[in-house]
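pipeline/complex-builder :: batch 7 item 3
reading input block
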Amino acid sequence: MSDSNGPSERWLDGSIMARQGVAGGRVGQTYRLTEAVQGDYHYTIGPYSEPVMEIDPGDRVVVDTRDAFDGKIQSESDSPSELLRMPFLNPQNGPISVRGAEWGDVLAVYIEEMRTRGEEPTGTCCMIPEFGALTGTEHTAILNDPLPERVRRMRLDDEYIYWSERNVLRYRPHIGTLSVSPEIDSINALTPDQHGGNMDLPDMAPGSITYLPVRVPGARLFIGDAHASQGDGEVCGTAVEYPSTTTIRVDLIKSWHITWPRLENEEMIMAIGSARPLEDATRIAYRELVRWMAADYGYDQWDAYMMLSQCGRVRLGNFVDPKYTVGAGALKKIVETH
Amino acid sequence: MSDSNGPSERWLDGSIMARQGVAGGRVGQTYRLTEAVQGDYHYTIGPYSEPVMEIDPGDRVVVDTRDAFDGKIQSESDSPSELLRMPFLNPQNGPISVRGAEWGDVLAVYIEEMRTRGEEPTGTCCMIPEFGALTGTEHTAILNDPLPERVRRMRLDDEYIYWSERNVLRYRPHIGTLSVSPEIDSINALTPDQHGGNMDLPDMAPGSITYLPVRVPGARLFIGDAHASQGDGEVCGTAVEYPSTTTIRVDLIKSWHITWPRLENEEMIMAIGSARPLEDATRIAYRELVRWMAADYGYDQWDAYMMLSQCGRVRLGNFVDPKYTVGAGALKKIVETH
Amino acid sequence: MSDSNGPSERWLDGSIMARQGVAGGRVGQTYRLTEAVQGDYHYTIGPYSEPVMEIDPGDRVVVDTRDAFDGKIQSESDSPSELLRMPFLNPQNGPISVRGAEWGDVLAVYIEEMRTRGEEPTGTCCMIPEFGALTGTEHTAILNDPLPERVRRMRLDDEYIYWSERNVLRYRPHIGTLSVSPEIDSINALTPDQHGGNMDLPDMAPGSITYLPVRVPGARLFIGDAHASQGDGEVCGTAVEYPSTTTIRVDLIKSWHITWPRLENEEMIMAIGSARPLEDATRIAYRELVRWMAADYGYDQWDAYMMLSQCGRVRLGNFVDPKYTVGAGALKKIVETH
Amino acid sequence: MSDSNGPSERWLDGSIMARQGVAGGRVGQTYRLTEAVQGDYHYTIGPYSEPVMEIDPGDRVVVDTRDAFDGKIQSESDSPSELLRMPFLNPQNGPISVRGAEWGDVLAVYIEEMRTRGEEPTGTCCMIPEFGALTGTEHTAILNDPLPERVRRMRLDDEYIYWSERNVLRYRPHIGTLSVSPEIDSINALTPDQHGGNMDLPDMAPGSITYLPVRVPGARLFIGDAHASQGDGEVCGTAVEYPSTTTIRVDLIKSWHITWPRLENEEMIMAIGSARPLEDATRIAYRELVRWMAADYGYDQWDAYMMLSQCGRVRLGNFVDPKYTVGAGALKKIVETH
């Protein structure tokens, strides 16, 4: 099923999800979370909304995500500042309740594939006043005039993004926002944190498994914000935002005590931190990776720390959101040695 | 009523609250928000909880606040890390619903007085692992061993804090956490932001008025976290935390469009920003102050900016919470000239 | 001599400088460092320039400082961006060599008084493109158009600053830049660091003593950047810059191992840190203050840390320079108890 | 000559260096900068030292670099804190004077190859107290006990690093510190900035060209700090530090007005920023890349900004030095389209 844009699934059998998950690698039922089933999308991620469905560990869900602008931007002459209003951005599907999930467990979300949706698949990218990395913002508050508003709309298919007359980019999809519910807070869909949220990490792509720390009964999975492509940092504030059909498989790992999200793919393990300033996000990610290598891969913590100084990999997720996201990774071929 | 620790109230007649508030300076009914009336205290500030009372603009509320540890730390041999669990810290009274408040209004909260509470008034200060300004934290993530835990308990009265055999400090109370509800999010009681929250600003003392931007019907006022004294930054992570009886008077200003909290006392106006890194909190506070001077005091924005470069005052609120707080102020005797 | 703008000198007898300095409170010779004696002013602070004079501990120097623009801005219609060129800004007097100073000592600089200079004393304040706190800069690099350039020129005397038709400000002078030489580096006059530099701290005023860590033989004292007034943060990037006659008295404390500058006045001791982000400057200042209280005032370090959480004072120096400066202080009446 | 660890040199003919350099791709004389020729190594990078040689654009220099510890750490039982003293770290070869270089030009440094040096090539990695990313430091000042000191010494050859019994890493060398002189300042060899300095960017490897903005006559090239391997961020503070023989080819581009270093290799162009906090380093790098694409590749700046949001690549250099370094890159196959 993931021929189009996911890598081979053979490595999955050895994944943490398969080895430690309740479903043990077995695939259960397939559910469809269409726009109609979803009904109202969510702009805040917390414990106060009604689940749209309940699934078992191992089940697959095919999700119709909306674009981050909720489809409100339909033309290059549209004005983002007139059509968009904070905090009603980045609509999320869910919450999906997972049977048996409780505080101290981990939800594993494997992304099988991400396909364009609609008859004329279209991506949207825009510059929104006081949003982005190379502009003053509500937080980096300055008196300069804002940058101009710009909207780009472009045709997509499952191979390419027809960005401009000059440049065609590869279709390299990932999911921007993936979350479980915080324990008592409800966090807007633009902010990443320990629950996941708007991490905008290009590695969260078909062929990856994201691990999220469960804090409420049923975990309450939220998903949205598909990107057809995104550079490191999502520097202008938005990616190639598009409505997708995203297929995920969900499993549950009991009693795995993690604090921040983690990710695994065929090549690498990665710990994810979200904070400001950016050095704190990086510190979180690397500390979590050191601790992970010490707890699960048999490294002395100082050996892990010193070796990562020679081979650690850093990925900048977003640095435009209320918190910035960084992933710190290590190659499996290095850490899985004995 | 505020003889003990509030300054003279004469200036109040000329305050923004008195001039623009619905109550116009008239004092309405007095309510008592005792522990019994409060029932469950709150650890998250949002639109999802039941109001404990409904009041009119101009009404006074006498509030029994709990200390930030919810009274769990009773002895210097107690272990904070065993007794406290995030996010169940900093219990808040409220929400108090204010009739007529709606999105785009401003809630004005005048603090009349703050008194110690209980038969043997006691303050508590402690060092909590990975919390504070001079230690690694969950965000400034490091591998160093945490600092030792420490608890200090001390006698208080309405004049002094009997800190140690060597040092007696003045009782200079202020309220650490004062909030209205965000629009759809619910934010834990440790985090300051546009809604107010855990700002830990010593200026938020008897004799001050705090202005908060209303985002939901009824405004939903939360209050807690009384400090008998606090230095700039609350550097070890906690102040002299104590159960107080705090008397506030609440008014409503219709259609005043502010984004961040503001404060006024007899001498000064102050804009408040909360963010990380600390320069962003400072930028927010100063930009809001420039805009305030331009909108309400007749300054050209560049004149305001350049003059604040000569006479602006900065107060560091906390720099230990998930976001840091800074107030930028200007003397009324300067900005109220014509 | 310091009647005009310095506080009483009686406290000086009990100052650290008087108690521990080589001169022991005695005042030596008085030297005049006029513009003619100075010759070329310096834009970089290091060990590679020729001393303009050599003095003994206890000597007094009367220094003619230039304004931070080197006098190049003479009219409100001048264009800062045409007249100024980095790094040739903020001209410094010195270096003054102090006999007997060597690595590990501390230079004490007491400011006796600061007077306006010239027949028609004039202050200059300006907005320089990409310089200031509420604008993008070379470091906080953005794509927004820069703010407009603005120049303000105003009459001064030793009591007032005639800022505008609307506002007259008090003459509250301080010295913006005070330094010894780094060991092998040479640091431009706009950057504060361990050697002192462009700290822009309003407490560095007549009646204060600044302590600087000596790193090279003779210490090599540099001084400049007089401000007739400055708000916390120097938010638009410049203060009321003016040519001054600044009188200092210099002493030497042997073998006092400090890493960052410190300050003392009649009321307070203060440790000074300079770094980015602003939280790091604040951390440095507070850590130095904790260590100072532990080393010299008999406090257990955790007691000092916890008590500063109740009574510490923070002053924001500049937050517009390549590094930001923060002072963390404690009242002498608190720390000098026994 | 670069068979061992440099990629093919064919792309060089189309490089910016070849197309715009004074030497136009021709290779001139080859010089040897041995330890004996070098004599004293330098710990500060500025205009105040004597050149060790003068070369012409196009000339090749074979440089014997020392390891970052100046060879002082010879055993795993050595104590870094006893043997190392700031600022006498990271010894630099040079300065090499380049004929014809003057303010406003750009020095191009192509790294041909980097080989291990000595009879038993050995790498050294260590944990130094208060140095590294996951520890308190002199700037992120905390009261926690420092991390333990650790030294790792390991055998190297031009293919592998024999890191531990468990892990063998690839020999992937790069040069950590590459600089021209600042105009009047002298900056210690641990700090990166506009002049280059201690960027610790793994892309600065054999097969890359670094472009540096000339600020003084002769440019004054400094080079040192070879790393046999380094992960993103150099997280423990040190890489596999080793004495190398590094062969560079130097050219001069007249009147190319750049402010920050840039890099080019076969696949990518990259702009480099160094600052704190880390977001500022990233902002600098991305802004420079946007401007580069606008100036030299025919992009409208908003198109460049929005497209980089889809395809920009970020590399974290060091985040352990006094300033952090980030590279922002774009694939040539994207930006060189027409």
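note: Chain D has six helices and 20 strands.
queue -> next item
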